[in-house]
Amino acid sequence: MPFIESFQPGDFLSTIVSLVVAFAMGTLIGAERQYRQRTAGLRTNVLVAIGACQFVDMAMHLAGPEGAVRVVAYVVSGIGFLGAGVIMKEGTNIRGLNTAATLWCSAAVGACAGADLVAQSVLLTGFVLAGNTMLRPLVGALERLPRSEESTEATYGVSLITGASRAAELRSKVSALLEAAKFPIEEVEIQDRPDGTAELRATLVNTSVRVVELDGAVARLRHLPGVTSADWTRSAAD
């Protein structure tokens, strides 16, 4: 029988060791995630770790290290689709990025175990746990630090009101003035208003700015012919 002919006790023992290590390390990572009630908890992290382990281990036995390297590349890209499933956007807030990154690391832990890099698998597990636990106080401390608007990235919008007949002409002038002031523009929209005027709204690329410089640029926009008012707004970056 093909199974009996291909069965190698040494290879089978190696697979057992790899899976046990991947299971144990995935359990450690998943337990921390489960304790914090994250979307991907204990079982998900364990399954990701042992799945990646078995794919790499199988490639090692069938095609050697070169085959394992190819499978690892597919694991790295494939786990991204699973991670994307736990990322959720709620308004301007994005949740699940850390959980997705943890799943990615769980796959790396399993891949190391499958490639018989047991010590590296254990070491990586330690770093993942440290990142998810020991860094939490530092994150909290940084979040509590006072910060100015100029030190944080945000989405800035510059809007001005003009006559509908002059909107297209002013569009290029607005873009040129903001670009000259070193404010990169993502897009400029024109919206007609019921009173016969039009609003030009320039959305700047997510960046941090000096409010004084932006105030100066908007002041110059107010002096353009045909402009009745100009102002800017700020919203948190996605």
TrEMBL record:
A Pfam entry, by short name:
MgtC_SapB_C
Transmembrane residues, as ranges?
A: 12-30, 42-62, 68-88
| Protein name as catalogued | Protein MgtC
A single GO BP? methylation
Species assigned in the record = Ancylobacter dichloromethanicus
Q: Which residues form the MgtC/SapB/SrpB/YhiD N-terminal domain?
A: 19-138
Q: Which family does it belong to?
A: Belongs to the MgtC/SapB family.
Which keywords belong to this entry?
Cell inner membrane, Cell membrane, Membrane, Methyltransferase, Transferase, Transmembrane, Transmembrane helix
Compartmental location: Cell inner membrane; Cell membrane
MF annotations from Gene Ontology: methyltransferase activity
**Role according to the record:** Virulence factor required for growth in low Mg(2+) medium and for intramacrophage survival. May be involved in regulating membrane potential by activating Na(+)/K(+)-ATPase.
Membrane topology value: Multi-pass membrane protein
- The UniProt record lists the keyword Endoplasmic reticulum: no
